[in-house]
Amino acid sequence: MVNETTAQETAWAIASALPDPEIPALTIAELGILRSVELMEGVITVSITPTYSGCPATEMIKGDIETALRDAGFSAVAVRLIHSPAWTTDTLSAATLEKLRAEGIAPPHRGQAPHCPLCGSSAVEQIAAFGSTPCKSLWRCITCREPFDHFKCH
Ligand SMILES: [Zn+2]
């Protein structure tokens, strides 16, 4: 019989290290998608919050967690979706926002247009409501002329 705390900690370490399918530079823990890992009646129960309802990445994340934990020897795994409190970009840490910028993705900027992640210019225009994934919109910098993704606010 494995110690419960150890099992939970091991499962958390595995789940929290999984990259986000849409932004592989960031883990699902850094993005605040991973909420909790608990051992409930012998079942490792992982709670995740979708970045927004209908995000196609959610099913992928669910599968990734189940596979990673089963590979690590956890036979009973359940992943449940938590919709409340809703996921918000407000919870992202400064370090996470900096990682997004380093990836060339303009971090969420509540209530105003993003700044160009390459040159920092605020002279930007939106090209499309959806970028490389539905979670992002596509913008172009007027100053350096480079297109960039903007991680949308929720
Ligand atoms: Zn620029």
Question: In a nutshell, what does this entry contain?
Answer:
The protein is of the alpha/beta class and 154 residues long.
CATH homologous group name of the largest domain: Fe-S cluster assembly (FSCA)
CATH architecture label name of the largest domain: 2-Layer Sandwich
* Class from helix and strand fractions: alpha/beta
**Tally of distinct domains:** 2
Fraction of residues in β-strands: 15-25%
The CATH topology assignment of the largest domain is GMP Synthetase, Chain A, domain 3
Describe the structure.
The protein has two domains: 4-87, GMP Synthetase, Chain A, domain 3 (2-Layer Sandwich); 92-151, no CATH class. It is α/β, with parallel strands linked by helices and 154 residues long. A hairpin with a 7-residue loop joins strand 5 and strand 6 (136-141). The strands form two sheets. It has a four-stranded mixed β-sheet with strand order 4-7-6-5. Strands 1-2-3 form a three-stranded mixed β-sheet, covered by helices on one side. The chain has helices at residues 4-16, 57-71, 94-102; strands spanning 34-40, 43-48, 77-81, 105-106, 124-128, 136-141, 147-151. The N and C termini lie far apart (42 Å). The model has no long low-confidence stretch (mean pLDDT 88). It contains three helices and seven strands, in the order H-E-E-H-E-H-E-E-E-E. The structure holds zinc ion. Zinc ion binds next to loops.
